[in-house]
Amino acid sequence: QVQLVESGGGLVQAGGSLRLSCAASGFPFRTSSMSWYRQPPGKPRDLVATISPLGDRTNYANSVKGRFTIHRDNSKNTVDLQMNNLEPEDTAIYFCHRPTGTSWGQGTQVTVSS
């Protein structure tokens, strides 16, 4: 079955960096676009970034453009999210997701202190 396992979250001060990683299995990863979403406390889940199957096209939410970078390694079935210059507003649970699927992982908590 589809498995998405996120890791790399933690507590960081504003201006700091974190790198999230997602290990995917159970579906044809190399031909799937992949996305990162986030859900702040008490708010709905929002799209953060998407990467094409070959990694040659990316899209970002306006709020993270220039600060976050999505990357994938098709040899390892992983998709990462490099987050720089973090802001308190980035505090959320972060999830990776296959846009054409319905499965979600448990997410990883990112907390940015001011």
Write a concise synopsis of the structure shown.
With 114 residues, this protein is mostly beta strands. It contains no helices and 10 strands. The strands form 2 sheets. Strands 2-10-9-4-5-6 form a 6-stranded mixed β-sheet, with no helix packed on it. Strands 1-3-8-7 form a 4-stranded antiparallel β-sheet, with no helix packed on it.
End-to-end Cα distance, whole Å, is: 40 Å
Q: Share of helix among residues?
A: under 10%
Shape: globular
| Largest β-sheet summary | 6 strands, mixed
Indicate the structural class.
mainly beta
What is the CA-atom radius of gyration, in angstroms? 13 Å
Topology, number of strands: 10
What does the average pLDDT come to?
97
Widest sheet: strand order? 2-10-9-4-5-6
- Put simply, the count of helices is 0
What percent of residues are in strands?
over 45%
Q: Secondary-structure element order, as H and E? A: EEEEEEEEEE
| Uncertain segments | none
